[in-house]
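lol ok so funny story. i was supposed to be doing the assay writeup but got distracted and ended up predicting the structure for this chain instead. priorities right. anyway since i did it might as well share w the group, maybe its usefull for someone
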Amino acid sequence: MKRFALSLFLLGLVFPLSGQTSAFPYELRSGRDAILISSGSALIIGSSVGHNRKDRLAEDELAGLNRNNVNFLDRPATRYWSPGLNDLRESFEPISVAAGCLAVGSYGLHSKFKTHRWEALKTLGLMYLEGLYISEGTMLVTKSLIYRPRPYTYNTNLPLETRDRGANNESFFSGNATILFYNSVFLSAVYSDLFPNSRLKPWIWASTLTLSTFSGILSVCSGYHFPTDVITGALLGGLTGYLIPYLHKAKAQERLVVVPWASPEAGGVTVGFTF
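and the output, tada:
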């Protein structure tokens, strides 16, 4: 199954090195890109401070959990438990990041060979890292500040030592869904911009989003995440994956406003436009 997932991701995400491409549509702006990459870095570094101060649920807190207090949409997840499914879905995340780096690197080196310039590799590489840092940093900060028990902690059919494990109160929100949907949307959007006339566009969107959705389903069925955890991660990752390529287009840059923010509950980056 892992080999199948790897093959599917590499097939769907690595940019074809042949066919007609449009003019390179992206550009960097030193000030705004510095804000994006530094904001993402600050979020990741800041999350480690909060995470180090976060304690897992104690035995008395576990005893007080009641699945009837969970909303109707998330409640069924409290009955699921499968470490095997959790191991499988966790394998998708490093595969997606590796595929993203391979896709960006392949196109960048191909462009260098054809144009004798590093512009594409430098621009796409920084864009990819900006979105990855911002999406992952926002997720990690939120996890470090919000205490939400994982679904399996409500499952009284499990032994106490299973429910009383590390990170048992870091359910919100799903980092796996965040990273996979970020990679899916970012790479699909970039492919669509680079190869606007390609017939592969709908297949790339469909294959990457299907695999990300499948991983999200595994997150719920394994007992590690509620559906709303996965939906939130998918929305954040997908939105970041769409906005980063869009904001680096020359016309969008002229109206872009980027403002990092943080509060006791969460943190992130606000992106707006002037009209």
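Residues 1-15 have pLDDT under 50 and may be disordered. The chain has one domain: 2-10+63-273.
back to the writeup now i swear
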